[in-house]
Write the structure tokens for this entry.
Amino acid sequence: MPRKPKRPCSYPGCPELVDGRFCETHAKQETRRYEKYDRDPAKRKRYGRRWKRIRDRYIAAHPLCEQCEKLDRITPAQEVHHIKPLSQGGTHAEDNLMALCKPCHSRITALEGGRWRRG
């Protein structure tokens, strides 16, 4: 199957052709800009380096999607979900976490309305 043609980087004035949105250099710059100016400071504080360590440890201990396991499916977990969201007083405690695959996490987040809610 043919691939889509490459297109110019979305960064103003960059002529480099890419498969995604930004070239490697400008993707890093855009991520830094987003984290600094667009992301809610409270979220940035809640999901820092400490959270990444907790998440990595939890995924290592729970390598399979907990929702898929209930349906007798074996799917590798890729994300960690807070059962009670941090914005509603939840914590990073292990009993408030759930290892999920991307489709299950997206479905749960959409059902909770978290994708469209700010905070």
User: Anything to note?
Assistant: The two ends are 42 Å apart (CA to CA). The chain has five helices and four strands. Residues 54-112 form one domain. Confidence is low (pLDDT under 50) at residues 115-119.
